[in-house]
Write a structure and sequence with these properties.
Blueprint (H helix, E strand, L loop, with lengths): L15 H9 L3 H8 L2 E3 L2 E2 L4 H10 L15 E2 L18 H7 L3 E7 L18 E5 L13 H4 L1 E2 L10 E3 L4 E3 L21 H15 L9 E6 L11 H13 L8 H26 L8 E4 L26 H4 L3 E4 L10 E3 L3 E2 L2 H9 L7 H12 L14 H7 L10 E4 L2 E4 L2 E4 L2 E2 L12 H8 L10 E2 L2 E2 L10 E2 L4 E4 L17 H15 L9 E2 L1 H9 L27 H12 L3 H22 L3 E3 L2 E3 L9 H13 L8 H4 L1
Parallel strand pairs: 1-12, 2-13, 4-5, 4-9, 6-18
Antiparallel strand pairs: 1-11, 3-22, 5-7, 7-8, 10-11, 14-15, 15-16, 16-21, 17-20, 18-19, 23-24
Length: 649
């Protein structure tokens, strides 16, 4: 969700484009909650989702828990604590802290904070009941992990479903009747197999079933929307409704297919929030509820992410405000009446919520489990775990309108960015180093993209190898040793002060501070994917993503045997195994990106005017299993010395 994709950031308009953008963002429920609550105008997160979510759940700044997205199937057997994706095994999670304070804990939706072992999942982090998917995204309809969902081709060849249920009696890949895309052409407002509908129904049921009279066990519900992440998919009702709303208010046709999809998805999210808050009110719980709404990073401005951070600069994957300053507010009856209706300008970090919730639950936020693990890690010469970074007293400061505990400190945003308010330092090469207009993406964006001018997805990878198409494709620029901005006076980061003699002392001081912070970066060896992880999930998790290390007694259903697999599932396992053979892996990494990027360029967005869309193609899908088998067959039939025929003999 971009800065400009939420209604309360579209309150004023001076130009025709700003007015059109205002008409397209339909978030009345969110606007009302923000107006009756407190908007956290200076809430900072990390530039991408996995590290941001790991920071949120663990209470550490992202550079102290996870600095880059790592394949969920990665494993380093030499480090059983940190040798996996996501939050290290022995860090305490937010769910465990509030559970210690007596709360009933529930998790619904996107996780993206690790899954290698049972300790990495929401259930392992203290949530009693979970219904989730593990990766960055999946398909909203069929719940699989296609290339447009994950933005990569994984060693498991994007073959699996990603939807899991966890509780004390059942831990297994979801296999209900809604594990299908059969309803995607439904004319219903909210078709039953749309993933967000499934998540909404689960959260509504949690609210209905909660015993509100049991004051010793209050409710902690973490509803983690898939919206507005790719793939851009929405029920037909909302796709038509958003265009109707814009037209009825005198607006123009939304000229980008992706912008229309994103605005329809935004409206769906808003309706869901209304339904959830209405359920709390009906239950009589609203007057003692603290609702926190936050996004994990700034909006992605690459195609097909298609968010808009106007007037902020940059987007997801960059350290500019558009990548790390997030839409965040709090609401609910728990907020003192005298505090409501304000904009809070104090600095708040995504890592602070762990400590805020610990304090509300009446427990000490100190992570004693991590401290104990450090004794073992030191003895084995492995990277130790950082202490909790979340600040105490932050919620009181927000309620009181005080600057808060981060007022006189520098905030370590990333290895390449530092905030010493009101100054911000951004260093090195940065993708998406641009300002978008009030209507983005648009027909100009689509035309540029299909002609090879970007903005492409900067993190596209094949079998854990990143593909770099060059700076122009990613709208990438270079801040070198440092770009310096006064973000209070210049929130859009339009005026670089780094060459101004008046700011040389400030620049030098911040470069030095960032260098000192970088000595604390958490950089354990996470490892790479072993195809055995894929095999485990095919057999133990029933073709779903899920834990694959130390899983004895985790799954509640017995594993499948090879005889239980379909013919196609056996082909998938064969293809996964082929990716482990060096010459085949190299061929795949060279050959498939051309096919995949060509597929994305044809299907990623469309220019729409007068009710028709150009650049339109029929919906396509990539069968990665077949592509790998075909590529392997080509190499096997080659008479060159690289041919691995002997492997198959």
């Amino acid at each position: 969700m971009g800065w400009a994709n939420i209604g309360y950031h579209r309150n004023s308009s001076q130009t025709a484009d700003e007015k059109q953008g205002q008409l397209e963002v339909h978030t009345p429920a969110i606007n009302a909650l923000a107006t009756d609550g407190i908007v956290l105008d200076r809430h900072y997160s990390y530039r991408i989702c996995g590290p941001a979510r790991s920071a949120l759940i663990s209470g550490r700044l992202a550079p102290h828990v996870l600095v880059k997205n790592v394949a969920v199937t990665a494993q380093n057997r030499d480090d059983p604590v940190s040798g996996y994706a996501g939050i290290p095994r022995n860090m305490t999670g937010m769910g465990a802290k509030v559970k210690e304070g007596g709360y009933k804990t529930h998790y619904v939706g996107k996780w993206d904070a690790g899954m290698a072992t049972p300790q990495h999942t929401p259930y392992g982090r203290g949530f009693d009941d979970t219904f989730l998917y593990f990766q960055h995204a999946n398909d909203y309809w069929n719940k699989k992990t296609g290339i447009q969902a994950t933005g990569e081709i994984t060693p498991c060849l994007n073959a699996f479903y990603d939807l899991m249920t966890e509780n004390d009696t059942h831990r297994q890949g979801y296999r209900g009747a809604d594990l299908t895309d059969a309803c995607k052409d439904s004319e219903e407002r909210t078709p039953s197999c749309y993933e967000e509908k499934m998540f909404e129904e689960r959260s509504l049921q949690i609210i209905r079933d909660h015993n509100a009279s049991d004051v010793d066990h209050p409710l902690f519900l973490f509803h983690s929307f898939h919206l507005l992440h790719t793939p851009l998919q929405i029920p037909k009702f909302y796709y038509a409704k958003i265009a109707q709303i814009v037209s009825q208010q005198g607006g123009q046709v939304i000229d980008s297919e992706n912008r229309r999809l994103l605005m329809a998805m935004t409206m769906y999210l808003d309706d869901t929030i209304k339904n959830l808050t209405d359920a709390l009110k009906t239950k009589g719980m609203w007057d003692n509820t603290l609702l926190v709404f936050t996004t994990d990073n700034g909006g992605p401005i690459y195609e097909p992410g298609s968010a808009n951070n106007y007037p902020l600069r940059g987007g997801k994957y960059s350290d500019f405000e558009g990548g790390v300053r997030t839409n965040t507010f709090i609401s609910g009856g728990f907020i003192p009446a005298s505090s409501r209706g304000r904009i809070h300008n104090g600095i708040v970090s995504v890592a602070d919520w762990y400590t805020i919730f610990s304090e509300l639950a009446g427990v000490d936020p100190t992570d004693t489990q991590a401290e104990s693990a450090n004794v073992w890690l030191k003895a084995h010469n492995l990277t130790t775990l950082a202490p909790v970074d979340g600040k105490r007293g932050q919620l009181d400061a927000i309620f009181q309108g005080a600057a808060g505990p981060r007022a006189n400190e520098s905030l370590f945003i990333s290895a390449t960015a530092l905030l010493s308010y009101p100054y911000k330092l951004v260093t090195g090469k940065q993708p998406y180093m641009v300002h978008t207009g009030p209507l983005y993406p648009n027909c100009t964006t689509v035309g540029r993209f299909v002609s090879g001018g970007g903005p492409d997805f900067v993190d596209f990878g094949v079998l854990e190898k990143k593909i770099d198409l060059g700076d122009a494709h990613y709208w990438r620029g270079d801040c070198g040793d440092g770009c310096l901005f006064n973000i209070e006076e210049d929130p859009s980061e339009s005026h670089d002060l780094s060459q101004d003699p008046k700011y040389q002392a400030q620049l030098k001081q911040m470069i030095g501070t960032l260098a000192d912070f970088n000595k604390t970066l958490f950089l354990p060896e996470r490892g790479e994917t072993d195809v055995k992880a894929c095999y485990s999930m095919m057999l133990n998790a029933g073709g779903h993503f899920g834990p694959f290390v130390d899983i004895e007694s985790y799954y509640t259903q017995p594993p499948r045997s090879l005889d239980n697999l379909t013919t196609y599932e056996k082909l998938q396992m064969t293809a996964m195994g082929l990716t482990e053979i060096p010459p085949i892996k190299e061929l795949i990494q060279e050959y498939i990106p051309k096919v995949a990027l060509g597929f994305l360029e044809k299907t990623v967005d469309k220019c729409c005017t007068n009710g028709t869309c150009s650049n339109a193609t029929e919906s396509e899908s990539l069968d990665l299993t077949r592509l790998v088998l075909n590529a392997s067959q080509k190499l096997i039939s080659d008479e060159s010395p690289k041919s691995p025929k002997s492997v198959y003999v």
